[in-house]
Write a structure and sequence with these properties.
The protein is of the alpha/beta class. It is built from 10 helices and 9 strands.
Length: about 260
């Protein structure tokens, strides 16, 4: 049957890079995202380049039925998932008072509730097999104060870090590890697609990292069983600074960074 990894949000960016690296390690891959045409292209590429099985299921994780759809797809095809990568995500660039509650609920479902649902669905078989790894793509925003835009993004990522800790506390003794991966600004389609390219452009070059580099460090830390992964030395230092900087200085720090393009 072979080893299987499931990667959400794998149509591009960090998710697709993670899928390719796992395939290079001999894992069969299950891709899932909204854009079916991309999933078809990506699955063909993985099959031809890495000589593993690769299947896909197209769905939108803002739909509450999608986690079950993904799980049922895997069960029907006997894909015993050993690695679950919760990567799907997006941003709402509008200020909090300008977004509808419906939009906020969809956002919370994709970045939070779907992660919990998929983990709940796939954990039992991991426990039964006495092995399994869960990767949750979080963000350095989890350590920073909320900004005037993306009001819920940082708070949700902080919650996901704590959820990952909870999995480790409850299931590490059963052979399961969960890794919260907290990348910083990364070259992907994320910023353009979500209307925050201006913020990305305002950051100095040394703070922008490649999706491939982020994916490599994320997988390395996940296989080591680390509870927290902060890819690149730049962001390890950045998070350390965030932890020791008094909150009242945050606006000044971010203002200085945005000017040093």
């Amino acid at each position: 049957m072979g080893k299987y990894a499931l990667v959400t949000g794998s149509s591009s960016g960090i998710g697709f890079e993670i899928a390719k690296i796992l395939a290079s390690k001999g894992f069969n891959i299950v891709l899932t995202a909204r854009r079916e045409e991309r999933l078809i292209e990506n699955s063909k590429l993985i099959i031809s380049n890495f000589n593993v099985k690769c299947d896909y299921v197209s769905c939108d994780l803002s739909d509450k039925n999608s986690p079950n759809k993904i799980y049922d797809f895997c069960k029907k095809n006997n894909y015993d998932i050993e690695i679950l990568v919760n990567n799907a995500g997006y941003a709402i660039p509008s200020s909090f008072i300008k977004t509808s509650m419906e939009d906020e609920e969809k956002f919370l479902r994709v970045l939070g509730i779907s992660v919990i649902a998929l983990s709940k669905l796939f954990l039992p078989s991991m426990v039964k097999n006495k092995k399994g790894k869960i990767m949750i793509i979080s963000s350095v925003a989890a350590f920073a104060p909320p900004t005037s835009f993306l009001s819920l993004y940082g708070p949700v990522k902080m919650f996901m870090n704590r959820f990952s800790d909870s999995i480790n506390s409850n299931y590490s003794r059963k052979g399961i590890t969960s890794t919260a991966v907290c990348p910083g600004f990364t070259y992907t389609e994320f910023h353009t697609t979500n209307g925050v390219q201006k913020q990305m452009d305002s950051m100095p070059g040394f703070m922008k990292k490649s999706a491939t580099r982020v994916a490599k460090e994320a997988i390395s830390d996940t296989f080591k069983g680390k509870s927290l992964s902060i890819p690149t030395k730049t962001y390890k230092v950045f998070v350390l600074i965030l932890k020791v900087t008094p909150k009242f200085l945050f606006p000044l720090v971010f203002k200085m960074l945005s000017k040093n393009k």
